[in-house]
Amino acid sequence: MAGLLVAGATSDAGKSVVTTGLCRAFARRGVRVAPYKAQNMSNNSMVCQGPDGRPAEIGRAQWVQALAARVRPEPAMNPVLLKPGGERRSHVVLLGHPAGEVSARDFATGRRHLAEAAHGAYDDLAARHDVVVAEGAGSPAEINLRASDYVNMGLARHAALPTFVVGDIDRGGVFAALYGTVGLLDAADQALIAGFVVNRFRGDGDLLRPGLADLERLTGRRVFGVLPWAPGLWLDSEDSLDLAGRRSARDGARRVVVVRLPRISNATDVDALGLEPDLDVVFASDPRDVADADLLVLPGTRATLADLAWLRARGLDRAVVEHARRGKPLLGICGGFQLLGRRVSDPHGVEGAAGSDVEGLGLLAARTEFAEAKTLRLPRGTALGVRASGYEIHHGRVTTGGSDPDFLGGVRAGNVFGTLWHGAFEGDALRSAFLAETLGLAPSGVSFAAARERRIELIADLVERHLDVDALLALARVGAPPGLPVLAPGGGA
What we know:
- By secondary structure, the protein is α/β, with parallel strands linked by helices.
- It folds into two domains: 2-234 and 454-478, 3-Layer(aba) Sandwich (Rossmann fold), CATH 3.40.50.300; 279-443, Rossmann fold.
- The longest helix has 19 residues, at 448-466.
- 31% of the residues lie in helices and 29% in strands.
- Helix 1 (15-28) runs parallel beside helix 2 (60-69) and helix 1 crosses helix 14.
- Residues 5-233 form the CobQ/CobB/MinD/ParA nucleotide binding domain.
- Keywords: Cobalamin biosynthesis, Glutamine amidotransferase.
- It comes from Streptomyces radicis.
- Pfam families: CbiA, GATase_3.
């Protein structure tokens, strides 16, 4: 079984991008490659089809990486998905389906069953593919968590995976981060660390080379390459920590404001709007930023009731209602749709206190009641006279009445639209029809699928040009070289 672990010196070092690029680079060589991440913590997820034919939920990043690998996404590629539901608790999705909750206190002791399932999923993928490119999470040098780790070196030890560490030089301190990551590991873990990749470099390569040579000399491990800073590079986001929006280069672009809910989920729903040349897409959490919106979007949320209270505490509820009363278009997606309804209730305590029943914003004739069973669907239909498709992930059961006909699993009342379908606006025909209906825009001809494919190809081209892909493929097939030196903290090789 051949495989490779892409670890990171820090969170957001670029592991997802490197993994995506390697998946496509290996696929270009005719290698049957699969992506894998033992555990994601993210509210950006996707529905795929499980081996039993049922819809299943995985992290969005692994779904995109499967596209890069040119294979069908499946639950084994992200066997454990943790969806934060509060400050210290997360909902668990295990092999694509709900599996209770886990708390921060359970981190060290209550996850053995998750580790067993994750490692079993890796073994299954490895048995069916030539190479598995596994992405770590955070840093492998979180020594306080090493005993219960099954995502980084715990996985590497399970499958004897050769590992390289990605460091983000744009943060500063990359040499200390790379050296220190290896030096903090025990000898058995260090034996699997074969080298490094430096990411997001911008500057004079001649000034960097002496540092790379010293890093190789001090660690006895090679640097497999340096990826340059690429400002236009972006993929479907794994998390919602960096919601920067997308700005148009054209004068007179229409302003799309996405309310930045505290527990926002599936923020990737607006990525396709960000590609439209006549739209500025921005995220906002202040009522004043909503006032000049041409189109206002309430995105999905992992905690509808809590985010409804947050809207009211900030006065955003009044800003949203006023926007609609002025006849401007308003779109609610999944949890955002539920916020627009008349009532939201939680009789079973799915989101919080059992028996909660509060008024919504009252802009759509809809009522939401949370149920313990989660709905996962890959629906298809028509809306605004065109074919449409998407995916559903929700606990809320929405009943409607008194509004215009069904709109993507939801309802429409004038210029207020509510849908339960994520990803629908990635469909070019539906997006064009919606923007023509709401903003009077002519079709732009932009293809979201083609844009995503170009981004994957760009990442793969950068990886091919700047990393030693053949050496990394050989590393995956042969394993870490024997006799790698053990670093003593504070010393050398």
